[in-house]
User: Fold this.
Amino acid sequence: MENEQSFSDICGGRLALQRRYYSPSCREFCLSSPRLSLRSLTVVTSTVWLAAYGLFTVCENSVVLSAAIFITLLGLLGYLHFVKIDQETLLIIDSLGIQMTSSYASGKESTTFIEMDKDPVEPHEISQVVPVFQSAKPRLDCLIEVYRSCQEILAHQKAPSTSPQAHQKAPSTSPSIQKASIVSRGK
Amino acid sequence: MVLKAFFPTCCAAADSGLLVGRWVPEQSSAVVLAVVHFPFIPSQVKEFLAQVQQTSQVGVAVLGTWCHRRQEPEDNLGHFLEGLSAIFSHEPWLQLCREKGSTFWSCKATRWQGSTSPGAPSEDQVMIVFYDQRKVLLSQLHPPAILPDQETGDAAAGAVGLAAVFHTVARSEVLFRSDRFDEGPVRLSHWQSDGVEASILVELAKWASGPICLLLASLLSLVSAVSACWLFKLWPLPFIWSKLSTCEQLRYRLEQLTLIFSPQKAENPSQRMRKANMCVSVLLDVALGLTLLSWLHGKGRIEQLADALVPVADRVAEELQHLLQWLMGAPAGLKMNRALDQVLGRFFLYHIHLWISYIHLMSPFIERIVWHVGLSACLGLTVSLSILSDIIALLTFHIYCFYVYGARLYCLKICGLSSLWRLFRGKKWNVLRQRVDSCSYDLDQLFIGTLLFTILVFLLPTTALYYLVFTLLRLLVITVQGLIHLLVDLINSLPLYALGLRLCRPYRLAAGVKFRVLEQEAGRPLRLLMQINPLSYGRVVHTYRLPRYGCHPTHSWGSLCRKLFFGELIYPWRQREDKQD
Assistant:
């Protein structure tokens, strides 16, 4: 089951949140930032090349122009591969853990997986706080949506399912620590 | 809790049979290691599993059944499989089933004990996680889940979470040794069942490495015994050896080679990686050195180098003489004290004259020396660079001498000034109490003290200027030497084998795992694919970096400036660290 909703980030840009419910124990939230706009790219390139041309008229050395072209190309590639994050995904799998993926504009993906710890002693203790959606920076309303869905999954875990296992140890029916909680930035 | 069934991707196309693996009750996960095919005799299967359990210390058991329906639904097979749960009892009993022509699987996990309604089994929710058995077997988690000293006994229980899956697969190697061409009692399906992976080159290398290691180890011990001989301990030889960076580098390389060729096998993966990294580093070093050697010995470059050396030294001495003439005049418009200026200037000029004569004395032998030094490049590029650094130190020895003279003079002057300044104010340094106390001086003491103080103050600019000029020159030489040492350190400590492994076989160095959700259908169990998340390059370098010899300057910028201001000598020479990594 998939649905898409539109939110805005702390600077006012548009974000698209896609929710996928694979099963009652597995959900995915995908936050997409706006892509690299042609306008900003043109502006930056023109500025750099005009500055290079200005230097060229002063020092009459064509190396300046080639250097400007190289710098623009390398800078663009570096920006696309290391800086521009297009999509951030949060995948929650019941009793396994939480996975956060950032997809860069060049196609590179960087993934972190946080395992869920079953601690029988303190089931409600928070052991680790990890900020999510650090690049997209959505506003509070989007974060509340995600948080609510996460709590639904944890509640589903806690609630006894079709076959209650009374002889099991308490932790397996009322598990887990919230190993990752969502931190909201800004308003 | 949801039951997680870790299923190897290689068994997804296997025929129907029994699922064999390990059950981890704390995480409610079943790690399937192999599939046992029909026909089998239950007692033989149980015997085989007991053997595997004893050898590998992993609690391998029959976890359930696997049904791959290739033709039309076979009811009798279904009933037969259900009957097996009575023979091999396991809680919970897994039943995985795959239909022909369908990508979706069906899963059932039944428990007989602990259900609320006795007589009827309770069913758990199941999640299937696919994993690539070969990659999981070969990969190494960072940080390691099990510490090396815990590897005995029931260590499989030590790993928590997903590390338990890795640990189980890695320890069950004995299960994967038989392939389908073996005539054993049990027919298994796993990642090596199509043929055990082996390489002729690797086997040959292993066989040959024994005698080669012994030979080289004995040669190296001979070399170390010779170098530890009493002849080399006569003074001043140890003093010279400790100052030359070439000796340090040679000693370091000797230690590394001794470690690589030691006949003992490496006990744990980190030692193996360290050996491999050292080996690749030495090989690269020697390769670069041989390239340099071939470049040097071609086209008469040695002669060019030797011919250029003496004129360069002459030029440096000439520039220094010009500098001193400038200082003896009115440098930058400052007015110096004539007498002191002349004394210092002439003293240093005479020094330079001695140095030039020495260089001219050596000039017939320079070419031979350079030729022999160039041969050292076959020991490695690092040795050549160390020799270059030592040659620079020797050629600029006069600058070092000037720096020491200037620094000592300046230091004495500063000491004198500070104590006479205290006298001028009527105070004294109390050595017992380590503080400044007031003191009553006699009149003649005060008179002479003040006189000396004024003399020193007015001579200060001259000494300070000489000190400044020679310190700057010395710092320039130290910078050049420092850059060379940085390059040598880089070649010494970069873990090239680990970086190559990360580039070509990224699954070997695992930082963790990542999951991908496969096609879903409502009502069917959730299917996930578990992949290895490789370590980032920065962490690879940080984890596997080889230990460096010597220490880096431990003073911070602040203490360096303080030392320069008070005229204390700064020593950039490396002191060998006593503790080894």
